[in-house]
Design a protein that fits this description.
Order of helices and strands: HHHHHHHH
Number of strands: 0
CATH superfamily: Rhomboid-like
Radius of gyration: 17 Å
Structural class: mainly alpha
Strand content: under 5%
Helix content: 55-70%
Distance between the termini: 39 Å
Length: 188
């Protein structure tokens, strides 16, 4: 009988999840001070280097266990398949580009809103996953359904609910995932 062994199958996704866990634990230990200082993005002084660092690190921060578990469940479910298909470098690029664009959009259009968490990245992954069967000249029906269901839900919730969730981050993440998924799958 062959021995089973645990493999480090998705280094970018596993490191992202571990860094997010560390950020969450730091936030708990510091009673939210580290989350505000390092793991949230908001409009701040453009002369401060932390302003630019937080445009990426906010994606590691989470407001609590429920927020963390919700995002990591999707990231750990979808991320390894994307990392296997596109490779570690491209997966890291998706994470960084999504975080940056979502952070900039939040800062420009919602200056009084602090953004924290990986929800934009989750939505980028959801939309990108629907492109896995993409062939040039075709639009997968799964992509259309996922876009309508997930992005439509965010638009409706953004208009009708005031629940302290950044629907804009979800929408921007979905758009980034759609653009990258289309471009990368078209080339293959």
């Amino acid at each position: 009988m062959k021995k089973l062994k645990i493999t480090f199958n998705s280094p970018v996704i596993l490191c992202f999840a571990l860094l997010s866990l560390i950020a969450l634990l730091l936030g708990i230990i510091t009673k939210g001070a580290s989350t505000t200082a390092l793991f949230s993005t908001y409009r701040s002084d453009l002369k401060s280097p932390l302003t630019y660092i937080r445009l990426f690190t906010y994606a590691l921060g989470h407001s609590g266990w429920e927020h963390f578990i919700g995002n990591m469940s999707y990231i750990l479910l979808l991320g390894p398949a994307l990392e296997e298909k596109f490779g570690s470098v491209k997966t890291l690029i998706v994470i960084l580009v999504t975080a940056l664009i979502t952070g900039i959009v939040n800062s420009l259009f919602f200056p009084s809103v602090s953004l924290c968490g990986a929800s934009g990245i989750v939505f980028a992954f959801i939309i990108m996953t629907s492109f896995t069967g993409f062939k040039d000249g075709e639009i997968p029906l799964t992509f259309i359904l996922v876009a309508v269901i997930f992005i439509g839900q965010q638009i409706i919730e953004g208009v009708f609910l005031n629940d302290n969730i950044s629907n804009t981050a979800h929408i921007v993440g979905g758009i980034v995932g759609a653009a990258i998924g289309y471009i990368w799958n078209r080339k293959q």
